[in-house]
């Protein structure tokens, strides 16, 4: 049997029009209603996945051009609030963790601590928080944009504030003595007074204490992002080529960040986000890859549109035959996303922009040593097994619409193979997301 790994599903569109511009839109699922997501969540739980993580962006942009890019094909909007969706997913499942995204720019610490504590109780410990530092929504809240590292400083103060409020009730503050009719001991609930650089509030929190706190997840491959994960996170969302050497190198950086913060590196699960294409046969996989080898300008424009949404920067008007100037990206743009666009190239100045986009349009075969994502279920299972056995990988996060068609295309053949090899769990501890993550 091989090393077991953890698996999650990343709702890369957030709580948005799942299925839009895809043939499976015609299944007539209502994306604004809970049934679509509840059906998919039940199937992920049955498959043995640990959690679903819901992307979010508070803003659809500032300039008319950026706004149009984000909504035209629903890459960046509309997006409804993922925290409003979470209770419906908890109601439909028994063990699956749900990790919506929260941006400290849009959540006052007291409100956040109270709402997240409530969800943690309602879900029996299955809620998590994906903490992001995007500053593109600052104008919605009457704020100025913060530089990259300052946004992390604010996120750290915010998360420290949540923990301060969650811990304002001592462990023995709850009495729950029916005979004396004493519910709690107010002398064991501590006042909180916080006056920080970004937030001011008083406590204590008006919510029962937590036996465990929500799982913290975070993206971010910059030095500051890794430092934040090392100090705070139980799940680090990572982007990397899926080969043994690259996985080892990335995990080593996360572990070093944890040690620098005095934490056990084993407390963080480094989980790599990817979007495989599972083919029915070797021949079909080869055909899919060959068809992508020489993308035309229309295909390159489609890639540019998608990345324009993620980068909050219009790439569609750039000259394809000139190098991209990285100065077009504002300080608010994620360094990890910029690096993701650059891909295998050391810098944007090395090649025409056409080659950058073509690298995103071209597909690779699983096992080709670069970043292949196309293969049969057996080939994908072989890759996952190698990453676990040879690189000690913690797990993987599939990315895509939370839609039954998308789930089944990726998982129908793969789940049984992973189960037979001992890589994918077939039961849960029943004790919440923390316990499931710590079970191996």
Structure description:
This protein is an alpha/beta fold. The protein has 15 helices and 14 strands. The protein has helices spanning 35-47, 64-72, 82-92, 109-122, 148-166, 223-232, 244-260, 282-291, 297-311, 335-342, 353-361, 377-391, 404-411, 414-420, 433-438, and strands at residues 6-11, 51-54, 97-102, 128-131, 174-177, 182-184, 193-195, 200-202, 215-218, 235-238, 269-274, 277-279, 374-376, 395-400. The strands form four sheets. It has an eight-stranded parallel barrel with strand order 1-2-3-4-9-10-11-14, surrounded by four helices. Strands 5-6 form a two-stranded antiparallel sheet. Strands 7-8 form a two-stranded antiparallel sheet. Strand 7 (193-195) and strand 8 (200-202) form a beta hairpin. Helix 6 crosses helix 7 (244-260). The model has no long low-confidence stretch (mean pLDDT 93).
């Amino acid at each position: 049997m091989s090393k077991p790994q953890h698996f999650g599903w990343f709702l890369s569109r957030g709580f948005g029009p799942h299925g839009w511009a895809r043939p499976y839109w015609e299944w007539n699922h209502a994306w604004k209603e809970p049934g679509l997501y509840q059906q998919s969540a039940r199937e992920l739980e049955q498959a043995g996945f640990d959690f679903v993580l819901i992307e979010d962006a508070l803003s659809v942009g500032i300039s008319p051009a950026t706004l149009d890019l984000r909504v035209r094909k629903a890459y960046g909007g509309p997006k409804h609030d993922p925290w409003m969706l979470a209770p419906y997913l908890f109601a439909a499942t028994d063990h699956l963790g749900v990790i919506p995204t929260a941006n400290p720019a849009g959540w006052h610490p007291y409100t956040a601590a109270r709402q997240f504590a409530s969800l943690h109780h309602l879900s029996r410990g299955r809620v998590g928080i994906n903490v992001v530092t995007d500053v593109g929504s600052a104008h919605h809240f009457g704020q100025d944009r913060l530089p990259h590292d300052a946004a992390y400083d604010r996120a750290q103060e915010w998360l420290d504030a949540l923990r301060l409020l969650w811990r304002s009730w001592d462990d023995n503050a709850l009495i729950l003595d029916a005979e004396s009719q004493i519910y709690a001991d107010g002398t064991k609930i501590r006042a909180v007074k916080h006056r920080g650089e970004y937030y001011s509030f008083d406590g204590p929190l008006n919510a029962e204490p937590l036996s465990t706190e929500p799982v913290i997840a975070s993206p971010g491959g910059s030095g500051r992002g890794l430092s934040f994960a090392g100090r705070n996170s139980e799940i680090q969302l990572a982007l990397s080529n899926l080969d043994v050497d690259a996985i080892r190198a990335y995990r080593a950086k996360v572990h070093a960040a944890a040690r620098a913060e005095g934490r056990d590196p084993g407390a963080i699960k480094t989980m790599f986000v990817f979007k495989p294409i599972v083919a029915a046969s070797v021949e079909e996989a080869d055909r899919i890859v060959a068809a992508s080898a020489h993308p035309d300008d229309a295909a390159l424009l489609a890639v540019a549109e998608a990345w324009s949404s993620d980068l909050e920067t219009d790439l569609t008007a750039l000259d394809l035959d000139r190098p991209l100037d990285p100065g077009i990206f504002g300080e608010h743009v994620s360094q990890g996303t910029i690096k993701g666009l650059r891909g295998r190239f050391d810098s944007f100045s090395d090649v025409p922009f056409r080659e950058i986009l073509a690298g995103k349009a071209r597909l690779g075969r699983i096992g080709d040593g670069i970043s292949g994502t196309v293969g049969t279920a057996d080939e994908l299972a072989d890759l996952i097994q190698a990453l676990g056995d040879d690189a000690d990988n913690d797990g993987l996060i599939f990315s895509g619409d939370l839609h039954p068609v998308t789930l089944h295309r990726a998982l129908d053949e793969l789940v049984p193979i992973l189960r037979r090899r001992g890589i994918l769990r077939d039961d849960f501890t029943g004790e919440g997301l923390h316990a499931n993550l710590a079970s191996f």
